[in-house]
Amino acid sequence: MENLLLDELVYGGKLYMEKVVFCQIDWELHFDDQYEKIGLKPNKIGTIINLINNSQYLPIIVSPTYNYHHLTLLNIKDPVCEHAFKIQDRFLNRYIC
Fold first, then answer.
1. CA within 20 to 30 Å of 35's CA: 5, 10, 71, 84, which one?
2. Which position has the higher pLDDT, 30 or 85?
């Protein structure tokens, strides 16, 4: 169900076009069988890649728990979010690998 919301955050999506901004989104990625029980076919990896390529959001934390994975999406392009999280200070000249 959360995919319906996340699909609207990409460039051109309804929430993006209406300038709705979230600085941080915490997303619970449940295991596939939990989605299948309600008739949904999950595509979590595709959704995450789509967010990286086509939105202001960058996944920054993935932590497995007992029933799901926790993923935090950080808005790295909105000026208010950039200031609140000091994104430039934290990530400037730092390499992921």
1. 10
2. 85
Please tell me the predicted confidence (pLDDT) of residue 41: 72
Summarised one tens digit per residue, pLDDT across range 82-94 is 888 887 777 666 6
From residue 24, how far is each of 21, 27, 88 by CA, in Å? 9, 10, 16
The tokens of 24 are what? 């941080």
Strand partners, 58: 74
Tokens of 37: 């029980």
Domain ranges of the chain: 2-91
- What's the pTM value of the predicted model, to 2 decimals? 0.73
Pair 76, 82: CB distance under 8 Å: yes
- Tokens matching residue 47: 């959704």
Structure tokens at 59: 């996944």
